[in-house]
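Sat 14:20. Reprocessing the chain from the morning session after the first attempt stalled halfway. Input below, unchanged.
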Amino acid sequence: MSVPHPYWLRDNCPCAECRNPRSGQKRFQIGDLPDDLTAAEAIEDGTGLSVLWSDGHRSFYPTGWDAPDDAAGDHRTEHGKRLWEAADFARGLPEADWSSYLADPEEKIAVLSAVRRSGFAVLRGVPVEERQVLTVARRFGYVRDTNYGELFDVRVEPDAVNFAFTDAAIAPHTDNPYRDPVPTLQLLHCLRNDAAGGDSGLVDGFRAAALLREEDPEAFALLARTPVPFRYRDRTADLAAEMPMIGLDPRGAIREIRFNNRSIDTLRTLHGAELDAFYAAYRRFAGITLRPELQLAFRLGPGDCLIFDNTRLLHARTAFEQAGGRHLQGCYADLDSLSSTLSVLRRNVAALDALEALFAGEGAGEYLGEAVTMAEHMLQAGALARAAGAPPALVAAALLHDIGHFHGSGLQLMAGTDNRHGATAATWLSRYFPATVTEPVRLHVPAKRYLCATEPDYFAKLSPASVHTLALQGGPMTPAEAEEFAAGPFAADAVAVRRWDEAAKDPSAGTPTFAEFRPLLLELMG
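Finished this time. Tokens:
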């Protein structure tokens, strides 16, 4: 059979020769592919498509390989958002307790998802201490340093250069429109708010722009195509960027709002009727952002930390009386790191779900003729490592050391074929865990061979099944092999896993659940 779009298909070959299996990065350049590339052979069955290319390379594309990936693509446009008005949060803001956010990955996923989809979330109970806003930012990404420093204090300052450092009301706006790129996230942590007034407000800028597009398409198009000069300058900085107020992606979807009356410099590129039309559109858009139904008002109290999308949401505050005292600390961060953390969290939780399902399903089956099931064996090994005070990575290695036996490969071993289950397990685990977990798993079979060669009484401790598999796995090491193994950086850890492996075959021993190990595993996944 012929294949459509051969260069596209060949460019997306998923094999390890073409892509790094851990990062997904391609190992070749598009110019490396030959001219007149064709498929010499193409066979499709229920498992996928196999293609032999004219340059001799063979590719296999599993069924569904090209299905949309929820973690991929641009989540920054209006199509990846929930556009909202104030009434949509009548039942409460998207929020979480700081301690729960730290301890529960599902809670963290919910908070980061809210920031990406609705544009904001509030963390309650963040310690009322200076610089804690940096801790919040670094739990999902990186702090964006600016001319204001790594953090800034929002409080009344004498002779303030920036309007934000006064007690005046501030209309809905985005921050730093004079930067390119603009900081995409802002965090504000409340340390004190005893003043009368000083309430916070948010407006969904994407919703406001969408309303402008519905009500006045010409005004929307004008604001989307007209570069606006934004500028900020003080004694140490002179920042300028020329960008439209409404930024669109190549398909015409709303992707960014830059709206800050205080920071617009003199517009000199338009004249006459064009200039009049621009200001009419600008005023029309400003009027929409001030509609009461779009303005979500709330009050931050000590310990509250607001995280919001600075390229989408306009933030505001009411005027306040200086006498009461109001102090927020803020910093900037970026959406790409938040989205990365969210995707990794979701991927890791899905991987743990898959592992837990294997332990509960296939793991309930027999384990190479032993008196315990496969799952009981691995859970006992993890429990022994934990009871021994082993570091978390070694506990994980003991728990997961035999996942290479899943999907029937353990039966291959007992039937006389070395399934290389340690290497198989380590390769899969390396997508999620560091070498401190995967290398002891990879080496736990060589560790058995090593111990049989170096400890005269160790062989007598092996179960009949373990004796049987030892012969298939190469038998005891030679002195030279044992010396080389012992010199390796993970030899001691692999030997420890091996000892727990042999001891974890007691049908009368108490066996923990996989769920008990999930927090430890998730923490190691990073």
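The first helix runs from residue 6 to 11.
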